[in-house]
Design a protein that fits this description.
globular; 14 helices; alpha/beta; seven-stranded parallel β-sheet
Length: 395
C-alpha cells in the first residue's frame, strides 16, 4: 500500500517501513564513519525502539561491536493498519545487525512487568551469560503494577499556575498558554511512571539472577534545560520524576549491587513526548535555528555517539558534573546560545515566528520519527507493511 502520514494531536498514527529502515541505516552509517569505540560488549537496552534508546542500541552495536538485547513495546501491522515506527525500526536494526554478523535479539512486551523481566533474564542467561551495560530509556505514559493498579503520568507545572508563550505548529501562530499545577497525587503518579523505581527493579532483578556482570554500567536519560522551561520541566511533574531518577542513580552506585549508575542529561530534541508539552516546542524550534547556525546542533545519534565515545568510555573515563550527571546538554547550555534563545523568546510573536524559529526543521524531525520526510525514500511507491522482526518471528 501507499502510506501517507496521518497526524492526530501530537502523534502520527501511521508509519513508513521503508522510511524507518532508511532512518536506521543513516544512523548506522554515521556511527561507522566515526570509527570504533572501546565500550561495552553485551548490552541490554530497555526502551530500544525509538529516540535515544534506539540510538544507544545502534551506537553499542555498530560503534562498540556489542551484542544487544532490546526490550520494546510495539505493534506489527494489522490489516491495513501499519505497524508502529518502533516495530519497523527494530526490524531494520536486526536486519542490519545480521548483515554484519552482530548478535541482536528483541523482546516485545511491557517492560514494567515481572513477566518481561523474567523473559529477558532467561534470554541473557541462554545467549549471553551476562550483560556489562544496561541502558534504561523507557518513555511511557502509564505503568501497570502487578496488583492491577495503573499509574498515569502528567505534563504539568507544580505549585501554582504558569503562563507563557506557546506555538501552534500547524498554524505557526504564537499565543499564551496557562498550565494548571499538578496535584500531589498526580506528582506521585508521575514519579511512579517516570522516576527510577522500575530502573532499580530491573537492576536488582538482573543482579539477583546472576546475569549482570561485575562492575557493569547502567545508564538512564533525562533533560534539565534552561530557566525558561523549568516551570514545565525541571520544576514540573516530570522534574519531580527526574529528581527521583537522579537519587536512584546515586543509590544504585552506593549499594552492594556492584554497578556504576549514571544519568545522562541530553539535549532538547523533537520527540513524541516533547511535542506534547506546552511551551517546549516553541523553545525547541528557536533553539534549533540558533544551534544550526552555530554548527552545534545534534540529533539523537550524534548525541549517543559522543556520549559513548567521549563522556562514558573515553580516555578520561566517565565525565560527570558536581552532581554526578553526564552533561550531554553542554552545547545547548552554552551561555552564548542561551542568551540568544532568551532574546529571541522575548521577540517572537506570530509576525516574527518564521524568521526566529526553525519550524520546518521541527516538522522534519517529527515526521522522521515515523519514517516520513526521509531523504531518498519514494513515498509514492507501493510498500509492504507486514514486516517481521527476525528474532521475534523465529520464536
Amino acid at each position: 500500500m501507499i502510506i501517507e502520514p496521518k497526524i492526530r494531536g501530537f502523534i502520527c498514527t501511521t508509519s513508513h517501513p521503508v522510511g524507518c529502515e532508511e532512518n536506521v541505516r543513516r544512523q548506522i552509517a554515521y556511527v561507522k564513519k566515526q570509527g570504533k569505540t572501546n565500550g561495552p560488549k553485551k548490552v541490554l537496552v530497555i526502551g530500544a525502539s525509538a529516540g535515544y534508546g534506539l540510538s544507544s542500541r545502534i551506537e553499542a552495536a555498530f560503534g562498540c561491536g556489542a551484542a544487544t538485547i532490546g526490550v520494546i513495546f510495539d505493534k506489527p501491522a494489522s490489516g491495513k493498519r501499519t505497524g508502529t515506527a518502533g516495530w519497523y525500526n527494530t526490524a531494520a536494526f536486526e536486519k542490519c545487525a545480521a548483515e554484519e554478523g552482530l548478535y541482536a535479539k528483541t523482546i516485545n512486551g511491557d517492560a514494567f512487568s515481572k513477566a518481561v523481566k523474567e523473559e529477558t533474564i532467561a534470554l541473557i542467561r541462554k545467549d549471553l551469560g551476562q550483560v556489562d551495560m544496561v541502558v534504561y530509556s523507557l518513555a511511557a505514559p502509564r505503568r501497570a503494577m502487578e496488583d492491577g493498579t495503573v499509574y498515569s503520568s502528567v505534563l504539568k507545572t507544580t505549585g501554582e499556575a504558569y503562563t507563557n508563550k506557546t506555538i501552534d505548529l500547524k498554524t505557526r501562530t504564537i499565543s499564551d498558554v496557562t498550565i494548571e499545577p499538578a496535584t500531589e497525587e498526580e506528582i506521585h503518579n508521575t514519579v511512579k511512571v517516570m522516576g527510577g523505581e522500575d530502573w532499580e527493579d530491573w537492576i536488582r532483578a538482573l543482579r539477583s539472577a546472576g546475569v549482570l556482570a561485575q562492575g557493569a554500567i547502567t545508564l538512564a536519560y533525562s533533560y534539565i534545560g534552561p530557566q525558561l522551561t523549568h516551570p514545565m520541566y525541571y520544576d514540573g511533574s516530570i522534574g519531580a520524576a527526574k529528581q527521583h531518577l537522579y537519587e536512584t542513580a546515586r543509590r544504585l552506585t552506593a549499594s552492594d549491587l556492584d554497578v556504576q549508575a549514571y544519568v545522562s542529561v541530553n539535549k532538547a530534541l523533537v520527540t513524541q513526548s516533547s511535542a506534547a508539552i506546552p511551551i517546549v516546542p516553541l523553545y525547541i524550534s528557536i533553539l534549533y535555528k540558533i544551534m544550526k547556525k552555530a554548527g552545534t546542533h545534534e540529533g539523537c545519534i550524534q548525541q549517543m555517539e559522543r556520549l559513548f565515545r567521549e563522556k562514558l568510555f573515553g580516555s578520561q573515563g566517565p565525565v560527570v558534573d558536581e552532581n554526578q550527571l553526564v552533561r550531554m546538554d553542554d552545547w545547548e547550555m552554552r551561555e552564548e546560545i542561551q542568551q540568544e534563545v532568551s532574546q529571541d523568546w522575548e521577540s517572537v510573536d506570530t509576525a516574527t515566528v518564521q524568521s526566529l524559529c526553525d519550524i520546518d526543521g521541527y516538522w522534519e524531525d517529527f515526521y522522521q520519527i515515523f519514517g516520513f520526510a526521509v531523504p531518498g525514500v519514494d513515498y509514492d511507491a507501493d510498500v509492504e507493511i507486514q514486516v517481521d522482526i527476525p528474532s521475534i518471528s523465529a520464536q
